[in-house]
Amino acid sequence: GKGVPAEVIPVPLRDAAPGSVLEVSPASVSVVRALAARLAVQGGALLAIDYGHEGPLLGDTLQAVRGHGFANPYDMPGEVDLSAHVDFTTLAAAAQAGGGVAWGPVEQGEWLVKLGIDARAASLARSSPDRAEAIVADRARLVQGMGSLFKALAVTAPAWPQPAGFA
């Protein structure tokens, strides 16, 4: 036959090597679109924070965790926690398609700094000197360690103001 029309092939796959993997989550798109539609009618906001990326990317991010360690996702079905990276750009588009306003995604570290994590951590460390070292370490883990892998996405009703941290 003529082959598949280019417009039905996801952009990341158009020039991909044979055997490349593109993860999609139609259920996530459907849920976010439905939530955004409800927000558009009833008002409100949604905040999603998870590990993921901007835009559809090629690659396999499926992973399993059992007992605080990585496991084979195909072993012991129902006995391991499965997860995959979130495509925040696709979720933002789904929110807009549902009538909501998407803010972000932004990296968790940047978002937390804009929200004032530095001042809060300093205040906590001053008020709990015996925990100061742990507070500094926890702040570093949230801002640097997890700061770029984790993203934040907000969805609001159209009339709502820009959420804090998404400037």
Overview of the structural elements:
The chain is built from 5 helices and 7 strands. It has 167 residues and is of the alpha+beta class. The chain has one domain. A 4-stranded mixed sheet has the order 5-1-7-6. The protein has a 3-stranded antiparallel sheet with strand order 3-2-4, with no helix packed on it. Helix 1 packs across helix 2 and helix 4 packs antiparallel against helix 5.
Strand order of the largest sheet: 5-1-7-6
Largest sheet: 4 strands, mixed
Structural class: alpha+beta
The total strand number stands at 7
H-E string: HEEEEEHEHHHE
Q: Note the beta-strand portion.
A: 15-25%
How many angstroms separate the termini?
Answer: 50 Å
Assembly state here? single chain
Write the layout of secondary structure elements.
Elements: H1 26-42, E1 45-53, E2 63-66, E3 69-71, E4 81-83, E5 86-87, H2 88-97, E6 101-107, H3 108-115, H4 117-127, H5 132-145, E7 150-156
Parallel strand pairs: 1-5
Antiparallel strand pairs: 1-7, 2-3, 2-4, 6-7
Helix pairs in contact: 1-2, 4-5
